[in-house]
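WARN retry 2 of 3 for item q-0093 after timeout on previous attempt; input resubmitted unchanged.
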Amino acid sequence: GAVVHRCDAAWWARERRSGNRLFKAAERDDASDPLVEAAKDAVRWHDEVRDVQARQQLVVERACRLAESAGFDWILHVDADELLYFPDAACRNDAPAWFAAVPDGVEQVH
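OK item q-0093 returned
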């Protein structure tokens, strides 16, 4: 199934307080941690100009956290301008089987 959230101002306020790893990292002063600098950029771009990629980064962080806590092995992030396509016709009707066949230890496919 799918879960849909309306990302309005109230949702973003709750997300900021919810423990999102990037919002938390952006509050730290640790220049040696690359996550801190990336998080600061994402949060700043979100706050100042509502940058689409920054907002996606923050929302995907939440989705990954929820998927992991629910025991999911994979999360699929597809924007309107992207496509999931399986060259092998046998896989086109069975994406879960395709993902199940990916060897252990593989963290990302593209």
